[in-house]
Write a structure and sequence with these properties.
The complex is a heterodimer of chains A (about 280) and B (about 350). Chain A has about 280 residues and is mainly α. Chain A contains twelve helices and no strands. Chain A starts with a helix and ends with a helix. In chain B, strand 9, helix 10 and strand 10 form a beta-alpha-beta unit. Classes of the chains: A mainly alpha (about 280), B alpha/beta (about 350).
């Protein structure tokens, strides 16, 4: 499968595709940006931008926990921790004890602090700094396979659960009264976001991963009139920013994650200024 | 309406792509890749670059290019960029220091399996290093008490030095038994100290290794390479004599070193290393660590702190508490790219030590 895609990419007359790491990067971008585009719409709708940001930050602790327990593949510990963290956050968010942004902020800072404390032990934090800005060369074929799996899971989940999630976003009490399994859907959604964020964080970087989730959807929302347009535009903008950002990062010799976000941000501002045009 | 919007989005995308293309044209890769027919030898970082530069001086048909910038310094946390991968794809040989300096080699070999790699350190006995802990699974303390213990028998090492170390070790072990036991709880794998170039004799060995392997790879240039290497080696020989002369003054002086690289310099001058604190670009010592250095100095009576100028601030804190003297040295991992920079830098280092030693005696 991977070889087949690789061969197809070989046929394209593009210089940067001569290298395996760029092929992997492009494949990863082509899988992950539609995912970000789709999930982003729900995150923006349900006002969870801060939530997903906190989730990204938990990668620090996930990695630190992995290092602490000597887990060779810190991807595993990062994903496990992120899932636990996401469920915990979600649980507390719905308790309505304190306003939810405060709770999220507390947990976000806590997880960053724990991660930093463990990783900076002995003063050698800098070797983990790649996690902050991302390293495009770190994408492995194995990760692409898991991404592909998640893409399929997400698409299925979306077909089954979209209406439910959407009604939760509008009014969760009403959704509950209609017999929608609010808790289950909500938890499944955050687990999915957690997995995707953790699988892409190594090459996008903690500092900006949230922007990739939020920006395409936010830009699409500026000009979309209904849900169909919203999704379509979000995915389009996401994929475009991903591919252009990757190519620019290659030729300009800068990190890929920031480049992706820059492109998406420019599109956001253009659509923001242009939104009146389409509102009539 | 949808069509209009799609058109609008499409327009933005085309415009952005064009803008990106223009930016790439103007701001793109300024570093020249090898377009000529020359053999391209890529070096991993500055000391290797200077070595290869001298080795190929006056040799036709070989171009030397440095993978990292001349200001990058030690490569402990270096992250390969896509430009690096491109450069390596066009290289005919890759000269590395080895001994753990180039931690990105796995990635290089993964995508450039056929690239001949010359490891300058491969037959050089190494000093034990302070644990850098680059592998993500284990953890280790930053601190190690430098025992000047070689992994292999080293003819460069003289006997009286070993005696010194034994005495020193005994005192040391008594005092730190407890700590050692504690440390033994986790895997106590010692890192290698790869900064061998600060020992002129070892540096000459590196030169020999690289010369031989390049001669094997490029037989047409073998004679010219040999001649250039001999010329550089003569100058290094002189430098080595200078080290020997200085050794008479420095031998036995207790020192604390603040960069692993200085361990080799201290060894070739037969100074007694009391403690090694690894202050590479990345690490900042905590207050507790500074306090520990001060305790060590008070206990052993270290005379000199060998430190990089950039860390003068740390040294001052220690100086205020002890009567040790600071000697600023250059680990020679950065520079302006001049072929002479190793020799001039080394001479400056020796001069600084001589100056301090004269005052001390």
């Amino acid at each position: 499968m991977m070889e087949l895609v690789g061969k197809v990419l070989d046929l394209l007359p593009l210089e940067f595709l001569e290298y395996d790491f760029m092929k992997y990067a492009l494949m990863a971008v082509l899988i992950i940006t539609p995912l970000f585009g789709i999930l982003g719409t729900m995150i923006v709708n349900n006002r969870m931008a801060f939530f997903s940001d906190a989730l990204g930050h938990s990668a620090f602790t996930g990695m630190a926990v992995g290092v602490l327990f000597g887990i060779g593949n810190t991807n595993v510990s990062m994903m496990l921790f992120a899932v636990v963290f996401a469920l915990l956050l979600n649980f507390i968010r719905h308790k309505n004890i304190v306003s939810s942004d405060t709770v999220i902020s507390v947990f976000s800072s806590l997880s960053v602090a724990v991660g930093l404390a463990i990783l900076s032990k002995n003063g050698n934090f800098s070797k983990y700094s790649a996690l902050m800005v991302g390293d495009i060369l770190s994408i492995t074929p194995g990760e692409i396979r898991s991404l592909f799996l998640i893409l399929i899971v997400t698409l299925v989940f979306w077909c089954v659960a979209y209406n439910g999630l959407h009604s939760i976003g509008i009014n969760s009490s009403l959704a509950k009264s209609k017999g929608i399994p609010v808790k289950l859907l909500d938890n499944a959604f955050v687990v999915l976001v957690a997995l995707i964020v953790m699988l892409s964080i190594r090459w996008v970087g903690i500092l900006i991963i949230n922007a990739l989730l939020i920006l395409p959807a936010a830009a699409a929302r500026n000009i979309a009139a209904d849900n169909r347009e919203y999704h379509l535009f979000s995915v389009m903008i996401s994929v475009f920013s991903g591919v252009l950002g990757l190519i620019l990062s290659y030729y300009l010799n800068v990190a890929a994650g920031p480049m992706l976000v820059l492109v998406a941000a420019i599109i956001f501002f253009i659509t923001f200024l242009a939104r009146r045009l389409f509102r009539g | 309406m949808l069509k209009k919007k799609l058109g609008f989005l499409g327009g933005i995308m085309v415009l952005l792509s064009l803008a990106g293309y223009v930016i790439c044209l103007f701001a793109g890769d300024s570093k020249q890749l090898n377009k000529e027919e020359d053999i391209l030898v890529v070096t991993s970082f500055y000391p290797m670059y200077v070595l290869a530069e001298n080795l190929t001086e006056g040799v036709d048909g070989i171009t030397v290019s440095n993978l990292t910038e001349n200001q990058t310094g030690c490569l402990h946390d270096y992250q390969l960029t896509s430009r690096d991968m491109k450069l390596l794809a066009t290289a005919d040989a890759f000269v590395i220091n080895g001994a753990g300096m180039e931690l990105f080699m796995d990635k290089v070999l993964e995508s450039h399996a056929e690239l001949p790699v010359i490891e300058a350190c491969h037959d050089i006995p190494l000093l034990e290093g302070v644990e850098h802990d680059h592998n993500h699974e284990s953890e280790e303390e930053l601190w190690e008490h430098e025992d000047s213990e070689l992994h292999e028998e080293d003819e460069l090492h003289e006997e009286h030095d070993a005696e010194h170390d034994e005495e020193h070790d005994e005192e040391h072990d008594e005092e730190h038994d407890e700590e050692e036991e504690h440390a033994g709880a986790h895997d106590h794998a010692h890192a290698e100290n790869g900064h061998v170039w600060l020992d002129v004799e070892r540096y000459r060995k590196q030169l020999g290794t690289v010369t031989e392997e390049l001669q094997d790879l490029f037989p047409e240039q073998a004679d010219a390479l040999g001649a250039a290497a001999a010329k550089y080696d003569d100058r290094l020989q002189e430098l080595s004599w200078e080290v020997d002369r200085l050794e008479e003054q420095t031998h036995g002086i207790p020192v604390v070193i603040f960069h692993e690289a200085f361990a080799y310099l201290a060894e070739s001058l037969h100074m007694e290393v009391i403690m090694t604190l690894s202050l590479d670009e990345e690490t900042v010592p905590s207050a507790g660590e500074i306090a520990e250095v001060i305790e060590e100095i008070k206990y052993h009576g270290a005379a000199f702190l060998l430190i990089e100028e950039a860390y003068a601030g740390h040294a001052e804190k220690i100086l205020a508490e002890t009567d040790a003297e600071v000697v600023y040295l250059d680990p020679l991992v950065t520079g302006d790219g001049a072929a002479d920079s190793y020799i001039t830098g080394m001479k400056k280092n020796l001069e600084a030590i001589r100056h301090a030693a004269e005052e001390w005696h």
